[in-house]
Amino acid sequence: MDSMNKITENELPLFEVFIRSKNGLDHKHVGSLHASDAEMALTNARDVYTRRSEGVSIWVVKTTDITASNPEDKGNFYEPSDDKTYRHPTFYEIPEEVGHM
Amino acid sequence: MDVVNTDKNWSDEKLEVAFQTKVDAEQRIEPKDWMPDKYRQTLIRQMSQHAHSEIVGMLPEGNWLTRAPSLKRKAVLMAKIQDEGGHGLYLYSATETLGISRDEMYDQLHSGKAKYSSIFNYPTLSWADVGAIGWLVDGAAITNQIALCRCSYGPYARAMVKICKEESFHQRQGYEIMMTMAQGTTEQKDMAQDALNRWWWPSLMMFGPNDTNSPQSAQSMKWKIKRQSNDELRQKFVDATVPQAKFLNLRIPDDDLVWNEERAAHDFGEIDWVEFKNVVKGNGLCNRERLKARVDAHDGGKWVRDAALAYAEKQKLRAADAA
Amino acid sequence: MTDNQALFEYLLRLGDNSLILGQRLAEWCGHAPILEEELALTNIGLDLVGQSRLLLSYAAEVEDAGRDEDLLAFHRDTQAWRNLLLLEQPNGDFAKTMARQFFFDTFQYLQFEGLCQSKDERLAAIAAKSLKEITYHRRHSANWVLRLGDGTTESHEKMQVAIDELWGFLPEMFDMDEVDAQLLADGIGVDVSVLKPKWDDAVNAVLAEATLERPEDSWSVRGSREGKHSEHLGYLLAEMQFLQRAYPDAKW
Q1: pLDDT, position A3
Q2: Domains in chain C: how many in total?
Q3: Are B136 and B207 in contact (CB under 8 A)?
Q4: What percent of chain B has pLDDT over 70?
Q5: What integer best gives the mean pLDDT of chain B?
């Protein structure tokens, strides 16, 4: 659609962000952000996803550079745990104290 | 040995049944899974408007950042506002997994096609308002967000869990401000009561129309986008907040507010739905200012984004030349 | 001047720098050109306010006259403030804000690097903690000077104008007066005058890569060490201090 192309034509590219915490063993996908290049994506990721915690390792990858497996198999309706697409952020588990002020 | 069927061979009915089965079984729907188009559209609308709310929500509090009455309060407020921006970002990020870009979402916001929570169309007139927002507005948001942690769409649910975890100090910060003022000088007490008077009803309106007037709700509940009804959540919020106000020795501006022993819940007065509709329509005190601030920031900042892109492009070409 | 009076003065200068700059960055809240930048600016502003709290609290203790960080921040009039004139200049556009940030971050990094070796343990500790933050601030603002300088024609022009307008406020950063000299002699303070060549190298490198012209050293404005400020500081303080001044017996 023409109008949509106009809106997105000068958009900053999308980057996926992966963080390995200080005592963590591997980088986990935490989300995405927009930046003009990898260096800006890196410094932005620090602000957005690490809130200044020290000793973390950050990877940023342009979304378009990621190739994902296709979950559109019949199997996936019955075994969703097979779905390992990169767009599957692994956030925390629901904390128990959620609900108290 | 089973022959593998791809989606292309399944009828829409079959896909929809399988989809609903998954939802009913409390399984998460992920970005690349098949989903009904209306499910996708409903989520895009809800999630993007949630994101817009976080971003616009930075403005009423930002209004007092340079006037915070102590360095500690300034620092805490700055951290809170930063969180809100971050939450908006997580939500835009989660919404983009549904096939819409952030700039498209901005365009919808700026053109008035998409809305944000009406609560942010009210002005912050005193420092007590900052306290009231943290206590009541964040309180209402948390009530809503806890329910959403069990939303059927994976990225939205996960964003909610992350947000809830970070949100924990927001409400406490606001309540502490109210406490300090309620226990302070006469002028401070008056300021706190005045803030409560102005923010109470708009906070109740945050939960949306009564269930009987909410036609979308049934389908959203079926798809587990909505986990509890508007009225249920509103009741929850009132019951949690009344004792908090009591502790502050402040009066909630509702003559009909009374404990109902039978229901084991508070009865409360009727919301002014005329005001609600008016503000939603765009005629609240700050609607135009809020939107203008966002449009100015985005449009006024285009040269910055263009410059960053131009630099990136130049670097790419230089790298290619050097190779 | 007694040692304590000199140290108090010195800490005030450091603390005021961080607070005034933090306050200016807070003005960007909700108006940044990119959402990610919104978070970056608030992040940097928060770091600076944090620095100011440590420094002003320490200053108040050293003064030992019953003041604290808030009495210093909310009850001094302009003549008693010691921040660099550079930092109280209005934000202007994003180029001006980033230029101001870049010039100061580059300086503050060198200054605090030196302060890490201060004989005053508390000051050294504050400097060490802050240096980690300033390392990131400097990287961030340098990134923007590059991108705006070597971006589009429009951004290049805006950045050049910003640099030209701020240039004369910079020499003040490298001045040494009797207080600086005393603190240096005591092994507590830093000789900022010798930092200029390093600062020049760092700044020149970025300006060159950003295709920006280094302005002539043809004008300079100073006075912060004597509390002689530009007209901007009065308005900044009026806004910042309003609540405490309007309700003097209230606790917040």
Answers
A1: 58
A2: 1
A3: no
A4: 97
A5: 93
| Extended strands (E) in chain A | 14-20, 28-34, 57-62
pLDDT of residue B56: 97
- Count of domains forming chain A: 1
CATH number of the CATH domain containing C231: 1.20.1260.10
DSSP B228-271: S-HHHHHHHHHHHHHHHHHHHT---S-TT-EEETTTTEEE-PPP
Structural domain includes residue C7: yes
CATH number for the domain including A91?
3.10.20.520
Question: Residues of A numbered 12-71 whose beta carbons fall under 8 angstroms of chain B's beta carbons: which are they?
Answer: 12, 14, 31-34, 36-37, 40, 48, 51, 68, 70-71
Q: Summarize pLDDT for C128-166 with one digit per residue, the tens.
A: 999 999 999 999 999 999 999 999 999 999 999 999 999
pTM: 0.92
What is the Cα–Cα distance from C216 to B118, expressed in whole angstroms? 52
Is C252 a domain residue? Answer: no
Question: Which structural domain, as residue segments, surrounds residue A65?
Answer: 2-98
Which structural domain, as residue segments, surrounds residue C182?
3-246
Residue C61: inside a domain: yes
**pLDDT 10s digits, C107-137:** 999 999 999 999 999 999 999 999 999 999 9
Cβ contact, residue pair B155, A89, below 8 Å: yes
Q: Which residue of C has its CA nearest to B89?
A: C35
Smallest CA–CA distance, residue C175 to chain A, in Å, is 33
